[in-house]
Specification:
The chain is mostly beta strands. The chain folds into two domains: 5-10 and 81-267, no CATH class; 45-79 and 279-377, no CATH class. It has two helices and 30 strands. It has helices spanning 28-67, 374-377; strands at residues 73-75, 85-88, 91-98, 101-111, 114-118, 121-127, 130-139, 142-150, 152-155, 163-168, 173-177, 183-185, 192-197, 203-208, 213-217, 222-226, 238-240, 245-249, 255-259, 265-267, 280-285, 288-293, 298-302, 310-314, 318-323, 328-333, 338-343, 352-356, 360-364, 369-373. The chain has a four-stranded antiparallel β-sheet. The radius of gyration is 22 Å and the shape is globular.
Length: 378
């Protein structure tokens, strides 16, 4: 049961790891439904469509240059929307489907503003008389595991030294040493699911099958119960704002901050941008939008009424407002007290964007993707 049922349709940032790329993925259901029609249309209009697509992309390119004049902005050639693709944390991957299962063909890792093609590797073995296997891509301290079978069910995306933490088929948190292939079971209750690791890899949140939460300290190897997190909370209902500080909601949907070292709780006595997890609230007035940070007790005002705009938040730092009706994107750097308006009125395109790695802004029109460093925008 999900007591926070309102969250079911919400996409949240979390380093904006849940950006909705599904609308740009050609899933089998929709693909098969339109395959014949699209094939016929392609044959009929292939000559004219080449010119249309070129003009569409050229319009976007010219607009990009106008908006980011004298800025270092580059197209991301690795994003090919004609193929099935997905984004998982810091990885871009391409896949095909067999019996409704994704088979990953290529993986690119994000590094310094670029996606770099990686070699797919493989691990397999046995643990406690159970076989396991998985494919993976490892880049610096990031790792993506896939095609998992047997005891190894799913893994976290951060390496802690040589260790990757993963969920087992019997619902336990385990560690896997990528150098020695040694597996250790950390929990042994068959209840441990839905893990999340803090930015500096000190803490791992563990949900006990909607009964309660615990936090595991990777340095002290101790696990503590955390009763201040709602047992039914989903991944988009909490967020790390530092290595030891977790922001979430209490049973009254008011925002709280939990110190995972001491388990002390700070109640902000307000519902911050429910259901997007942050320490911000926003008020709107005629030609004015004011952003409040209730943890730092600071505020910043913008000379625009953004009340009808959609919004997202990255790292409790950047706020992104977008209105397809007004055809504007507004990027706010709360810490610098600066904002940038991207006006795409008259381009006849739908343009969106997101923050990645807390340093870069990726902007796209569904066909082409461009990237620019955030510190160049402001």
């Amino acid at each position: 049961m999900n007591r926070f049922h309102e969250f079911n349709w919400i996409r949240t940032p979390s380093d904006w790891r849940d950006i909705d790329f599904q609308k740009y993925q050609y899933k089998k259901k929709s693909y098969m439904s339109y395959k014949i029609v699209l094939s016929i249309l392609c044959v009929i209009i292939v000559a004219s469509s080449i010119g249309i697509v070129y003009a569409y992309n050229e319009t976007f390119r010219v607009w990009i240059q106008q908006q980011f004049f004298n800025k270092d902005i580059e197209i991301i050639p690795q994003v090919q929307t004609s193929k099935n693709f997905g984004i998982e944390e810091y990885f871009l991957y391409y896949y095909h489907e067999v019996n409704n299962q994704e088979i990953i063909d290529e993986v690119y890792a994000f590094d310094n503003g670029r996606y770099v093609l990686q070699e797919i590797q493989h691990k397999e073995g046995t643990y406690n008389s159970q076989s396991y296997s998985f494919d993976y891509v490892n880049y610096k301290d990031k790792i993506m595991t896939f095609h998992t079978k047997g005891y190894y069910s799913y893994g976290l995306s951060q390496l802690n030294g040589n260790l990757i933490y993963f969920g087992s088929i019997d619902n336990n948190l385990c560690s896997f040493n990528m150098k020695t292939n040694e597996i250790q079971t950390i929990t042994n209750d068959q209840l441990s699911v839905n893990f999340s690791m803090s930015p500096q890899k000190t803490f791992i949140l563990i949900n006990k099958s909607d009964q309660y939460w615990t936090v595991y300290n990777t340095k002290t190897k101790q696990e503590k119960r955390v009763d201040s997190i709602n047992p039914y909370a989903h991944n988009n209902e909490y967020n790390f704002i530092s290595d030891n500080l977790l922001v979430t909601y209490d049973d009254n949907l008011e925002t709280i901050i939990i110190d995972l070292n001491s388990l002390d709780v700070i109640n902000l006595n307000v519902q911050c941008l429910y259901p997007t997890v942050s320490t911000f609230t926003i008020s709107f007035d005629i030609n004015k939008t004011t952003i409040y940070d209730h943890y730092l007790n600071e505020q910043y005002s913008i000379d625009m009424d953004l009340g009808k705009y959609d919004y997202s938040i990255a790292d409790n730092h950047y706020l992104l407002f977008n209105s397809f009706e007004d055809q504007k994107i507004v990027i706010v750097d709360f810490r610098k007290r600066m904002y940038k308006v991207l006006d795409y009125f008259g381009t006849n395109q739908i343009i969106d964007g997101f923050v990645i790695d807390n340093e870069y802004f990726i902007i796209y029109n569904g066909k082409d993707y461009y990237i620019v460093e955030l510190n160049q925008i402001f």
